[in-house]
Amino acid sequence: MGSRSRYDINAWRCGTHSTPSKSMYLDAQHVVHCQATDRGVGPCAVKHHFPSPIVSWIEDLSSFGNVSFSPDSEYVDEQARASVGQSSTSSNLHDMQISVRLTEEFMELAKENISNNLETCGILGASFRDGTYFVTMLIIPKQEGTAHSCQAVNEEEIHAVLSEQSLYPAGWIHTHPSQTCFLSSIDLHTQYSYQVMLPEAVAIVVAPKDPTRSYGIFRLTDPGGMEVLRGCDESGFHTHRETTDGSPIYETCSKVRFNPNLRFEIVDLRSGA
């Protein structure tokens, strides 16, 4: 529900990354490749190694579905309910493609924390080619979590991985282990820190206890939500003012596509996981 990022936004600027070449592996001896078959693609069994493994996948579209939005009022910012449409700036954004199995694999990595009612967060790394961002890496940083918040630590390790792989910080993913699928006021500030670096950046919320949707993909409205967060200096759970144009502070992403053949790599930086 809450994960604050301390990235120096000047360290990441759109257009400063070179186009990634063929995969560069941090720990090649621990890479497991999944191969597609003639009649479909699906995940093969892999063994996760810690710390800092990379696991490659080819995905299966069958697990993806659409569900509706239902937040929990206890931690919801009443001015920050998601819209299903798109803000005026959204239509000008580049598309983003994400593996259809990314949320499922993240849930597996977060399983122990979920059972203990602790949030888990991860960072999305994307390459950019042909006018589209492709999320090709999921980084699980060292972190501290509670039932309603999570905080990445040693964030220089995240920066190092993204830099080595020439990837953009394309957003983040985190669990709501006992709450519903929405962005809290803390989440909004975290999303602002990503979206000010990359307008296409997304926030993925995975909420296994939500009876109406298991996950959602969100972004701040622009200019409405971005203006509100830019002018907010509060911390912790708090209420935000209304946007000047009356729009919601955040919205469900309309520029994200799910790709059944997109490989992504998992880098788990947690020690002793």
Automatic annotation (TrEMBL):
Domain MPN: 96-224
GO cellular component, one term: membrane
Keywords, in A-Z order: Hydrolase, Metal-binding, Metalloprotease, Protease, Ubl conjugation pathway, Zinc
Transmembrane spans: none
Zinc among keywords: yes
InterPro entries: JAMM/MPN+_dom, MPN, STAMBP/STALP-like_MPN
SUPFAM superfamilies xref list: JAB1/MPN domain
GO MF entries: K63-linked deubiquitinase activity; metal ion binding; metal-dependent deubiquitinase activity
One record GO biological process: proteolysis
Cofactors demanded by this protein: Zn(2+)
Keyword Hydrolase: yes
Family affiliation: Belongs to the peptidase M67C family.
The protein's name: MPN domain-containing protein
Lineage of the organism: Eukaryota, Viridiplantae, Streptophyta, Embryophyta, Tracheophyta
